[in-house]
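Session log. Operator J.P. requested a structure for one protein chain; no other inputs attached. Running the standard single-chain path with token output.
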Amino acid sequence: MRKYTNKLQLILENFLKSNFKNKIKIILKALGLRFVLYHFLFLILSFFFKNKSFFMRGLIFDLQKKLTNYVAIENKHKEKFLLFTNDNIISKEVFVREEFDLPKLQKTLNFLKTKKHIENLYDVGSNLGVICIPAVNRGLVKKAYAVEAEPRNFELLKTNVVLNKLESKITLFNYALSDKDGAIVEMELAADNSGDHRIVNDTQFNYRGEENRKTLKLKSIKFDSLFNNINSERDLIWIDTQGYEPKILNGAHKLIESKAPIVVEFWPYGLKRNNMWNEMLKILEKFDYFVDLSSKNIKVEKISHKSLTDLAGGWQKEEKNKHSLFTDLILLRE
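Structure written below.
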């Protein structure tokens, strides 16, 4: 069962487990003094820009929001990224911890390598390149095809590919994938999370302030129209599109028939809000197996009425003011 923990209990437990520096950070935040102190400490902390302390790097990232719209970083793998300073999730994670979600890709490739030789990554919803750039740079795959719909994200994606001199190995596409070619789709823009821009469809509810978001009109294209030569042994498709995955897969019949492995985000809130929960379950029935990447150990589940019922039923009801519960699934066909 995927469920929420008691918030107050979790805060207390995390506080007690924290080291001295983190305890100071938590106390200052609670007292409302962090903003003032951050400005006072900026010149001192900036001296430690290359410090490996997550605490220090988090402070430095937060301080720069008032100074600039972008910040650059080079990690220990010599990968360079230009990031948004107003992005509290992906950009901050890359700045502080030097990567985002890459362990999921590594776990997937390790699982697949016994039966397949993955050479190409199709990164749908590629954001700023935080998956495809390290994947290619570190030799996890030979080539990547990165699809990003949101214009500002796409500009930074292009910039980051150039900064890492990977133009010959990463091909970029500024498209909104869907189930039709040439349709007009609407994207909601998140103010503080570059990875949470969402194409919306038949919206059912707003629990997280989505009604206040600005929107953008985009023209769609099907996956099968963009890519029509997928190889089941060499290609891995990676789709993270905030609850719009069923629409994309409904425009990817050739992809599904190719039997190439597909990783999709499985986010109940996004799916239900887009009225695509049942559609997602129908799409899963087109595959033979799935692997839940949130599980500590790899476990291959044969797709059946029972396994899908267990997957669909293992979620606590979404609640306002709490983080969303989600996982990622590897979808496989024999």
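Operator note: The chain is about 35% helix and 20% strand.
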